[in-house]
Amino acid sequence: MEKYKLPVPGEIYRHFKNKLYQIIAIAIHSETDEKMVVYQALYGKYQVFVRPLENFISKVDEHTYRFTLVDRDHLDNHEEDNQATSVKENRLDTIQKENAILDEPFYYDNSELIQFLDAKTCQEKLNILTSMKNQLNNNILNNMLISLDLAITDGTLEEHFDILKDYLQTRARFEINRLR
Q: What are the DUF1653 domain coordinates in residue numbering (predicted)?
């Protein structure tokens, strides 16, 4: 396979069918250790998808990659591209309202996110979540929701926090921490 730049969180890629997607994370399959790409559509309902990295960077034919990196300047300078214009107007407004940054990949201290992901009980996860409430952004919160197989819906950061908190409180209430 030819040399291909690995996707980085925050980058935008164009699918060969001409739809735009933003990289959320590179994940590791828990059973096979296969690298997976977690990415979000920049159109419609902004659904989140996962695909094996090898498949993401593969070619669909001899000359066409499945996904190609989009130059952000290209998005800003080509107004005739209706999809890019729509994404630029709609998605940028949404992301700016949510306090996220589209102009550069998001980087954050993920030590608390890692603690959350490594926590063995829902009560531990709940404690970590509430302790970092003032430091949360949509990227961290979305990763927490994804890790619990919860759907990312439209809404504010506060609404997503409340959904996750309620979920963890319910799970913690019924969690069994002892052997029978």
A: 12-67
